[in-house]
Design brief:
Layout: E1 5-7, E2 12-20, H1 21-36, H2 51-81, E3 86-94, E4 102-111, E5 116-117, E6 124-129, H3 134-147, E7 150-153, E8 165-174, E9 177-190, H4 198-204, E10 212-218, E11 232-246, H5 252-257, H6 265-299, E12 300-301, H7 306-326, H8 343-363, H9 369-380, H10 386-394, H11 397-419, E13 421-426, H12 429-434
Parallel strand pairs: 6-13
Antiparallel strand pairs: 1-2, 2-4, 3-4, 5-12, 7-11, 8-9, 8-11, 10-11
């Protein structure tokens, strides 16, 4: 039977669903009879509870369940018959004055839009590239040395210099009053590594064990502690201990401690290069992907289903509340978060999702098994036990779905770059890594 579809707006549609009341009642009775075999009630043996009692206690819930099932099936059948691609969940309302013996409902919903992707060859996209230099390898090796450094107490009379670990007592006051977080005992930090505000760091340089001094410190206006941001404090610091750092030599011992199979300095540098090149590839891909997605949005036209935007908005709000909870914010579940704060982001994500899906469909850019395997193999190499990481992903469908999304995005990025007007841009290693 043909389904009558009313067009209410660009994407909004309405169809009428009719259910025979006898069919609903028959299914309700059937489920209640089945339920009566196991339902329990005081004064009755299992399976002997009268149907009237079963209906009184469970009739409403069973009727609600049957109506949901029947309406869901009727809507699905009608949408399939009319060849509709339904976006979101329909809103279903029962109509009054239905013919005798029938129940009539209006289902209002949205359909997926027609996505028009423009001429990709007219799009200009900046494509970044970066080389791993020997200097970058040197700096990474230095970081590895620092991770394995040791400290030894300096001789009495030596002043603290950059790289030393100092143990101090300190107390700060603003207008003569102590403030939260402004006092510490046996507190350790390493001079010159940004662990303290620059003024504090400079004040401790040159001090000797056993010395004390008082100095003024101006908190930055954007300091994370709102109570002291932009204010000036007076700090008194006493140095308890000064320790000089000792970095391990770049030799075979260091290589072996880092798990380098060859146990040589050349092997260490080769391993560092390989890891940096993997990181560079990922960051370049992420940067180029962002440029591609911006270009795709720019050349595409479509109407956005309000239901999909609303659903995405709700997910973003939920994620924000979860983030607040993880940060220890009180009442994160009820904290005021205006819905429209994420509106633009939700619209962009829905738009981009629809455009990418259409591009994948048109040009068969789905993830192939060999691509998934290759991605997993490369990604797992950054872990200590790659084989276990591979098994962890392959053993879970949801995790593999995430991998598939990454590979599809990579396919889309490469496809668009092959069609668009690409402007190559060589980025310095530091510029890429700090972005």
């Amino acid at each position: 039977m043909a389904v009558n579809v009313e067009t209410l707006d660009k994407l909004e549609r309405r169809i009428t669903l009719t259910l025979p009341a006898a069919q609903i009642n028959s299914e309700v009775e059937s489920r209640l009879r089945k339920l009566s075999r196991t339902v329990k009630a005081a004064g009755f043996r299992p399976g002997k509870v009268p149907m009237s009692v079963v209906a009184q206690r469970h009739g409403y819930a069973v009727h609600y369940e049957v109506m949901n099932d029947q309406l869901g099936k009727a809507f699905s059948d009608a949408a399939t018959e009319a060849k509709l691609r339904v976006a979101g969940t329909p809103s279903i309302a029962q109509k009054d004055n239905a013919p005798e013996g029938q129940m009539v409902f209006d289902a209002t919903f949205e359909v997926y839009p027609e996505v028009q992707i423009g001429d990709l060859s007219a799009a200009e996209i900046e494509s970044a590239s970066t080389e791993v230099t020997e200097e970058a390898i040197d700096r990474t090796v230095e970081i590895l040395r620092k991770q394995r450094r040791s400290f030894a107490q300096r001789p009495a009379g030596d002043g603290a210099v950059e790289g030393d670990r100092v143990t101090i007592d300190f107390e700060g006051k603003i207008d003569g009053e102590a403030f939260a977080g402004g006092k510490g005992e046996a507190f350790q930090f390493i001079i010159g590594e940004g662990q303290m505000l620059e003024q504090f760091d400079k004040a401790v340089r040159g001090m000797k064990a056993g010395e004390s001094k008082t100095f003024a410190l101006q908190f930055p206006a954007d300091y994370h502690g709102a109570d002291v941001a932009g204010k000036e404090a007076d700090f008194r610091v006493s140095v308890k201990k000064i320790e000089a750092q000792k970095l391990p030599d770049v030799d075979e011992a260091l290589a072996k401690s880092l798990g380098i199979t060859e146990g040589t300095v050349d092997g260490l540098r080769a391993s560092v290069r390989k890891n940096l090149e993997r990181e560079v590839r990922q960051r370049v891909l992420a940067r180029n992907k962002a440029a591609v997605m911006d270009a795709l949005v720019g050349v595409s036209q479509l109407d956005l289903p309000k239901s999909l935007v609303s659903g995405e908005n709700e997910r973003l709000v939920s994620a924000a509340r979860e983030d607040l909870k993880q940060r220890g914010v009180k009442d994160a579940e009820t904290a005021p978060l205006p819905q429209d704060i994420f509106q633009a982001q939700a619209e962009r994500r829905v738009r981009l999702g629809l455009v990418v899906a259409e591009l994948v469909r048109l040009h068969n850019l789905q993830a192939k098994p060999e691509q998934l395997q290759s991605y997993l193999e490369e990604m797992s190499q950054s872990y200590e036990k790659p084989a276990e990481v591979m098994r962890w992903y392959l053993g879970d469908r949801q995790r593999m779905a995430e991998v598939e999304s990454v590979v599809i995005e990579k396919n889309v990025t490469e496809f668009v770059l092959s069609k668009a007007k690409v402007n190559p841009k060589a980025l310095a290693f530091d510029e890429l890594m700090s972005a």
